[in-house]
Design brief:
The chain has 430 residues and is of the alpha/beta class. 33% of the residues lie in helices and 22% in strands. It has helices spanning 13-28, 52-68, 79-83, 85-88, 106-114, 159-163, 171-183, 206-214, 234-239, 258-264, 270-283, 302-315, 342-365, and strands at residues 4-9, 32-34, 42-47, 73-78, 96-98, 142-145, 147-148, 167-168, 188-192, 200-201, 204-205, 221-224, 248-250, 288-295, 319-324, 371-379, 384-388, 394-398, 408-416, 424-428.
Length: 430
């Protein structure tokens, strides 16, 4: 009988890519990939540790796997596995704890285990780009890893400690990866990494890389994953005139206060951010900006928080990932005075979320009467199709007889749904 493997992924798109690559590897070797809530012979939890909340969720998912099938192999990997390794090693229920640098060798670890060849995690290869091409993962879009690690050492961030120093993937490997996934039938690729704007390999920077990706022939589109407001400029802005490059950036602002940005050790000011947004929106007025915003960083006054609210309103983000500052051991911010009480952080977070919902509805309403090129992800039993348009907004419409999954459909937007996270509603343009 086929061995059954279940996966749970938390955190960033880089984690999602790495899980998809492992899923594809297990499937190609004859394993059956099942839902995480079903019984399996092995559970792999790909964790996140960016905040205390991330740690909590990662631990919860690890416990769920233990309860579902107590005698299954349990592998904990990802950033929390690296950050909390000593603590996790005390938990008897966990079979293997695998560092980020060894994650690409998890298939070898488990395949050996099931064949009775018990190996130590210390024997696993350390290759951050050792993941194979995703032939059949868990997602319609294909993530392409171009970079890993970060050298910025923002004062609040633990990522450089758990992902390591920045390293970029050679262009020939990236190009081969993209051509392979296109041959598998993928229609959208997402460029991802930890700090992709700092890509530097083969004499190419990030803008050069994007230009090369867009030059690859084929009917596909390119989306840029979460990016810091650094390492690129007018060349990238001009590339958005290419119809393959989707008009959306998750551009991380973190705070609307220059004082807080400086204390965070960010490498830009609010005006730097403003210039980037304005340059792109001058070219594409309905360009979709989404962002990360932290509340309650040490020393954040009421005035600093108001500056963040003003920045959010000015830039018209369609989505804001709002999170409360969490102390991460070993970071500079851990030692800062003026730590903000949890109650105030919670209150500020609620205010941002309320404003974010208002801006989201306003932005999505602006698409009524406009067209979106939707990559169809699924068609339900009532013949309603859904997927993301080029502006990265989920869209639903009545499918025609020729509508297919993993194909593009041009849709005219007629309405938006009610509720907190409204999808666009449209009809097929003949």
């Amino acid at each position: 009988m086929k061995k059954k493997i279940a996966f749970k992924t938390l955190g960033c798109r880089l984690n999602i890519f790495e899980t998809d690559a492992l899923v594809s590897q297990f499937r190609n070797a004859g394993y059956e990939v099942v839902d995480f809530h079903n019984e399996a012979d092995a559970y792999i939890v790909n964790t996140c540790t960016v905040t205390n909340h991330s740690d909590k969720k990662s631990r919860q998912e690890t416990k769920k796997a233990s309860r579902t099938k107590s005698d299954a192999v349990l592998v904990v990997t990802g950033c929390m596995a690296t950050n909390k390794k000593v603590e996790l090693e005390k938990e008897d229920r966990i079979t293997y704890i695998v560092d980020n640098e060894q994650k690409s060798d998890i298939f070898h670890l488990l395949d050996s285990h099931f064949k009775g060849e018990i190996i130590s995690t210390s024997e696993l290869n350390r290759d951050r780009f050792g993941f194979g091409t995703v032939e059949e993962g868990l997602h319609t879009r294909s993530l392409i890893k171009i970079q890993d690690g970060c050298n910025n050492y923002c004062t609040f961030c633990i990522v450089p400690f758990v992902r390591g120093k920045a390293v970029s993937r050679p262009w020939k490997d990236i190009e081969k990866n993209i051509r392979e996934v296109l041959a598998f039938g993928y229609k959208e690729i997402i460029i991802t990494g930890v700090n992709i704007g700092r890509y530097d390999a083969d004499g190419m920077n990030f803008e050069d890389l994007v230009e090369k990706v867009l030059s690859i022939p084929g009917d596909f589109r390119v989306r840029i994953s979460s990016i810091e407001p650094e390492g690129f400029g007018d060349k990238l802005f001009n590339l958005f005139s290419n119809p393959k490059l989707t008009p959306h950036l998750h551009l991380c602002i973190q705070s609307g206060s220059d004082k807080i940005l400086m204390n965070m050790r960010r490498t830009y000011t609010v005006n730097d951010f403003r210039l980037m947004v304005n340059k792109i929106r001058k070219r594409i007025p309905d360009f979709n900006f989404t962002t990360d915003l932290m509340v309650g960083f040490p020393g954040e006054t009421g005035e600093d928080f108001q500056l963040s609210l003003r920045a959010v309103e000015e830039f018209g983000f369609s989505h804001i990932h709002t999170f409360k500052y969490s102390i991460r051991k070993g970071t500079r911010a851990e030692r800062m005075s003026d730590q903000i009480p949890e109650k105030i952080k919670t209150e500020r977070s609620a205010v941002v979320r309320e404003l974010a919902e208002k801006l989201k509805k306003e932005y999505r309403s602006s698409f009524i009467g406009k067209k979106q090129k939707v990559l169809v992800e699924k068609i339900d039993k009532d013949s309603f199709a859904s997927g993301y348009g080029e502006h990265y907004i989920y869209t639903k419409f009545k499918a025609s007889k020729t509508t297919k999954t993993n194909e593009f459909s041009t849709i005219e937007i007629t309405d938006i749904e009610k509720g907190e996270d409204p999808d666009l509603i449209g009809k097929i343009v003949e």
